[in-house]
């Protein structure tokens, strides 16, 4: 299967997985919120949020293994791929152990009056925290296997494991309704156990399928190569922890000033943002190995072209769903949750605006990862992202600002981080601002303006109970047509048409 057909097949697989898991996950969230109540659901998102955010951490760290594996696949060097896997596996065992120890030490202080949790729920929160800390280890050592699957562009098994995880979460949500005991503790323990199941499915498959996946040499790491991998993984981990620290730090700040009910709203907003970003991440996941392999093969021009294409299509795929949802957020949340916690609507809208800002340079992030020298990038961007915490705290400390101020600063800092990524890409990759402006920003401007105006007038002048369905349909049709004719160059139009025909032929061949 050639590269274009592989990307088409993987995109089809991942989008099918995404639609299934997104629907089940959103339904499961509603079940869990109703079963636990706003207070316990807020406690869970506050305490277990560290592990909930590890899906992002896992993806960021998997990029390290996947980058080296794809890079050496581009050079067709199997022996080097074996060295990458064994040394990466050893490294992640060490990283996992260090993180678990760090979490347990931190846990000694978090529950001693630091977190704003009702006194009668402290013991339950502490139990959940310990179980979640242990599962971090399994999450981290799964990373090399996940990276190996992505490097081989085997999205079918990745999709299968994700579906299993989602179905298990639905089963847990339904099981809660049969319990009369502490539902919060049971939910935390069972959810934590899913990570162990995922590790088993990934590892067994990879050891059977891929020759570079072996235990031989894991306990005899090559010092020089481990140092190189550790440098790359370490800086990726730093960037991931900055993002995770920002998200969890905002949860703590909201908890300190407003309590667990606002944490419930923040948890739902993160859930909505995470689910919608699957659309753009799915496309990037299918395209990323080609970006890495192009750099490994010495084709910098193709790598940069693919990265700009990823930024443009990534923004389109997220905004395609996010913009009508932002305008219809209140109606959608009432339809989905029935009982909507305070501040949930505005939190969800601001989280999506911040996510849209991030998508403007999502492909540039992949280009910098493919290049390999990411120290400057992670230090600068990661540090700026963490500035969200002191800024939010100082604003709330004045007593003059509402909770949504925290998410406003989040969206602004995401946009500023995009500017910094472009500057670093210019330094490291001789990235062209003018080409980016012409091929990404200007191409997105007219379709984006048209869909925003369309949604504004629909919401302003049309009123009936299920208007959000009409808004979604009209918005998607108008946005897609204008994006195709005004947002794509001739080569991209040809690629989209060819991609559609490949997807169609793959479906008909099944």
Automatic annotation (TrEMBL):
<feature type="transmembrane region" description="Helical">
    <location>
        <begin position="156"/>
        <end position="178"/>
    </location>
</feature>
<feature type="transmembrane region" description="Helical">
    <location>
        <begin position="376"/>
        <end position="396"/>
    </location>
</feature>
<keyword id="KW-1003">Cell membrane</keyword>
<keyword id="KW-0812">Transmembrane</keyword>
<dbReference type="InterPro" id="IPR050833">
    <property type="entry name" value="Poly_Biosynth_Transport"/>
</dbReference>
<feature type="transmembrane region" description="Helical">
    <location>
        <begin position="128"/>
        <end position="149"/>
    </location>
</feature>
<feature type="transmembrane region" description="Helical">
    <location>
        <begin position="408"/>
        <end position="429"/>
    </location>
</feature>
<feature type="transmembrane region" description="Helical">
    <location>
        <begin position="12"/>
        <end position="29"/>
    </location>
</feature>
<feature type="transmembrane region" description="Helical">
    <location>
        <begin position="468"/>
        <end position="487"/>
    </location>
</feature>
<protein>
    <submittedName>
        <fullName>Putative flippase</fullName>
    </submittedName>
</protein>
<feature type="transmembrane region" description="Helical">
    <location>
        <begin position="343"/>
        <end position="364"/>
    </location>
</feature>
<dbReference type="GO" id="GO:0005886">
    <property type="term" value="C:plasma membrane"/>
</dbReference>
<feature type="transmembrane region" description="Helical">
    <location>
        <begin position="41"/>
        <end position="63"/>
    </location>
</feature>
<feature type="transmembrane region" description="Helical">
    <location>
        <begin position="184"/>
        <end position="207"/>
    </location>
</feature>
<feature type="transmembrane region" description="Helical">
    <location>
        <begin position="84"/>
        <end position="108"/>
    </location>
</feature>
<dbReference type="InterPro" id="IPR002797">
    <property type="entry name" value="Polysacc_synth"/>
</dbReference>
<feature type="transmembrane region" description="Helical">
    <location>
        <begin position="313"/>
        <end position="337"/>
    </location>
</feature>
<dbReference type="Pfam" id="PF01943">
    <property type="entry name" value="Polysacc_synt"/>
</dbReference>
<feature type="transmembrane region" description="Helical">
    <location>
        <begin position="441"/>
        <end position="462"/>
    </location>
</feature>
<keyword id="KW-0472">Membrane</keyword>
<keyword id="KW-1133">Transmembrane helix</keyword>
């Amino acid at each position: 299967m050639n590269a274009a057909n592989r990307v088409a097949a993987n995109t089809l697989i991942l989008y099918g997985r995404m639609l299934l898991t997104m629907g089940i996950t959103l339904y499961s969230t509603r079940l869990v919120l109703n079963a636990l109540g706003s207070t316990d659901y807020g406690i869970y998102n506050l305490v277990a949020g560290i592990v909930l955010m590890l899906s992002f951490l896992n993806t960021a760290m998997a990029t390290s293994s996947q980058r080296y594996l794809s890079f050496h696949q581009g050079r067709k060097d199997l022996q080097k791929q074996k060295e990458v896997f064994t040394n990466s596996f050893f490294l992640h065992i060490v990283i996992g152990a260090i993180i678990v120890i760090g979490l347990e030490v931190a846990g000694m202080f978090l529950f001693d009056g630091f977190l704003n949790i009702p006194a009668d729920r402290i013991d339950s929160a502490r139990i959940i925290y310990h179980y979640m800390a242990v599962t971090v280890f399994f999450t981290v050592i799964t990373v090399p296997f996940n990276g190996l699957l992505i490097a081989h562009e085997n999205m079918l098994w990745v999709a299968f494991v994700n579906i299993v995880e989602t179905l298990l979460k639905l089963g847990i949500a339904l099981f809660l309704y049969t319990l009369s005991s502490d539902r919060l503790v049971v939910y935390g323990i069972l959810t934590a156990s899913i990570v162990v199941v995922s590790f088993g499915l990934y590892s067994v498959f990879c050891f059977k399928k891929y020759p570079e996946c072996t235990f031989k040499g894991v306990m005899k790491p090559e010092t020089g190569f481990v140092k190189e991998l550790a440098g790359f993984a370490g800086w990726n981990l730093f960037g991931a922890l900055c993002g995770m620290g920002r998200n969890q730090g905002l949860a703590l700040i909201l908890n300190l000033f407003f309590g667990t009910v606002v944490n419930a709203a923040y948890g739902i907003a993160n859930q909505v943002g995470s689910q919608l970003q699957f659309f753009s991440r799915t496309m990037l996941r299918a395209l990323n190995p080609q970006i890495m392999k192009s750099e490994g093969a010495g084709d910098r021009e193709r790598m940069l072209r693919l990265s700009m294409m990823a930024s443009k299509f990534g923004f389109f795929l997220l905004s395609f769903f996010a913009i009508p949802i932002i305008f219809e957020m209140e109606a959608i949340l009432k339809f989905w949750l029935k009982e909507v916690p305070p501040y949930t609507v505005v939190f969800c809208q601001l989280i999506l605006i911040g996510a849209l800002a991030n998508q403007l340079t999502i492909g540039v992030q992949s280009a910098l990862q493919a290049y390999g020298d990411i120290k400057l990038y992670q230090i600068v961007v990661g540090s700026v992202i963490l500035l969200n915490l002191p800024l939010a705290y100082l604003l709330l400390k004045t007593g003059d600002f509402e909770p949504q101020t925290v998410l406003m600063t989040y969206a602004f800092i995401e946009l500023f981080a995009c500017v910094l990524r472009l500057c670093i890409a210019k330094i490291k990759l001789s990235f062209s601002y003018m080409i980016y402006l012409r091929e990404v920003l200007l191409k997105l401007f007219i379709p984006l303006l048209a869909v925003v105006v369309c949604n504004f007038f629909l919401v302003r002048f049309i009123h009936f109970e299920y208007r959000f369905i009409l808004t979604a349909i009209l918005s998607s049709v108008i946005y897609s047509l204008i994006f195709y004719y005004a947002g794509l160059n001739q080569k991209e139009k040809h690629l989209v048409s060819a991609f559609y025909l490949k997807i169609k032929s793959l479906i008909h061949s099944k």
